[in-house]
Amino acid sequence: MATLLEMAAEIVAAHASTTSMTKEELVSELVELHQALSALEKGETINTETAHPEEEQSALPAISRKKAFGKDKITCMICGKEMKTLARHLKTAHDLKPTEYRKKFEIPRTQPLAARNYSESRRQMAVDRGLGDNLAKARAARGKKKK
Fold first, then answer.
1. Those residues with Cβ within 8 angstroms of residue 101's Cβ, 6 or more apart along the chain or in another chain
2. E strands along 8-145, which residues?
């Protein structure tokens, strides 16, 4: 059977492979996980009420709202990661809905949660494929059926 340290290292390595972490974060997570596994092995209870740095930081945005919304990228105000669109990231990384995120950081509903260039390229792709024309035809056909 693997030692507790080896198990903790494997768990932290798996977490680090999907999340960017500093050396200090890696070491502290390894230490915390090893302590938790040791406590479990001894049959002790684990204190899960310790304050997590992510929860403390959640009150303050990682970046200002003005800087968060750029032409080519949008930055998550919780963790500071840059991407093209936020909706999926919010659900997977922070378990938040876009409306909750908007409320938390006072972002107006008119502000899209996607980079401007990304939205424009998607719009242009839809125009090129004639998706707007297909929608107009479908609406017209639906209107004729109702009459």
1. 77, 78, 86, 90, 94, 107, 113
2. 74-75, 82-83
Structure tokens at 133: 């024309």
**What is the rounded CA–CA span in Å between residue 119 and residue 123?**
6
Residue-wise pLDDT tens digits, 103-133: 999 999 999 999 999 999 999 999 899 888 8
| Burial (Cβ within 10 Å: 0-12, 13-18, ≥19) of residue 75 | buried
Residue 97 has pLDDT above 90, yes or no: yes
Return d(Cα 101, Cα 99) in angstroms, integer: 5
H/E element, 1: none
Query: Residue written as tokens 């998706």?
Result: 131
Tell me the C-alpha distance between 18 and 142, whole Å: 46
Task: Name the residue type at position 72.
Answer: D
Beta-bridge partner residues of 74: 69, 83
Largest CA distance in the chain: 74
Q: What percent of the chain has pLDDT over 90?
A: 35
